[in-house]
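User: Before I run my own analysis I want an independent prediction to cross-check against. Here's the chain; please return only the structure tokens and, at the end, one sentence I can use as a sanity check.
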Amino acid sequence: MMGLSAPSEPFESTYDRHCRWMQRAIALAAAAGNAGEVPVGAVVVAPDDSLIATGENRRERDQDPTAHAEVLALRQAGQRLGSWRLEDCTLYVTLEPCPMCAGAIALSRLGTLVYGADDPKAGAIRTVLNIPDSAASNHSPRVLSGVLEAACRAQLQQWFAKRRGNG
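Assistant: Structure tokens:
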């Protein structure tokens, strides 16, 4: 009698995969925070679940107002893929993108955006503005918010409390 064989790799749910990649973004955010940057990290993942690019905030280190984690990761992804069109890729970022980054996401034709914490001051995906779904946008990625939200929010709050001398 033939039985079913076990799969060669353990099953990983979509949510587990999102959490795994968000943990990678959180680690990048920690590195940015340790370097004196606002702790935001980002990773770009291919459809086959392989890492294409990473980014962490570098505005202070590079003295570049555009050196946000998302922009750096998108640039690196485009260079590695040899195309600015990232329609089959997923961007994971610890904080809801700002207007600049939301614009870059739309212009890159990104397939999916997954972010951790909402940004009540500058969030341009769903919280303050909705750039991807606005008439000004030529592309709207699939969006999943709140992945490891508590960890992403705590990381930012602890960093700002320490900077203010409250932590």
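Sanity check: The beta strands are 41-45, 51-56, 90-95, 112-117, 142-145.
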